[in-house]
Amino acid sequence: MNKINLVLVALLALFIALPAGAQVKLGVIGGVNFANLSGEEVDGTKIDFSSRTVLGVGGVLDVGLNENVALRFEPMYLQKGAELTETDPDLGTATFAFKAAYLEVPVLLKIALGTSTTRPYLMAGPTIGFNLSSKLELSALGISAEIDAKEITKSTDFGLAFGAGVSFPAGTSSIFVEGRYTLGLTDIAEAGALEFMGDEIVSGDADVKTRGFQIMGGIAFPLGGK
Fold first, then answer.
1. What letter would DSSP give residue 223?
2. Of 8, 27, 110, 186, whose CB has the highest number of CB atoms within 10 Å?
3. What range does the domain containing 199 cover?
């Protein structure tokens, strides 16, 4: 709840600081995140993760700076993670799934192209994610078990996002579809150890960062109905 309040206070401060005449739109957004992780062991060996298809849903705040340039805030509930398959002498083929959920807050510079009512746009900027939950699931020998992994996951995840989209007029509102790639800059592995099905899992040595390609769609309404 404190993290959500922090985002609300920041957005309220933004509203207070808005220049007179700024074009503001509010809306909703949702879609899928093709989430993955990149990682290396201490010796530099690459960890071969595979992606997970998960969900994201949230809100949109578009602050127009002029006719073609805007700041876009998209605070959302965004799932992340990846899977890792290994062969264990006792368990055989085992699949580890890291399932995480974040309050993700991208702050994107949006540049519209062209002059038609249907407008493509480019966007890029930093993003910060506040970890809400982290779980580790093991599937082996036809059995699945899941434990809380928040103790070995850092609370924040900083990254860069860049992508493109297109908006279509719908009366005074606009419908949009966009795709973007988010590159995590934070090593999210926190040093610690968990007991998992009788074995100890130690975290903190590997360098693990989030990755994700999101396809999102939504609708935005002009504030005040203008």
1. G
2. 110
3. 2-225
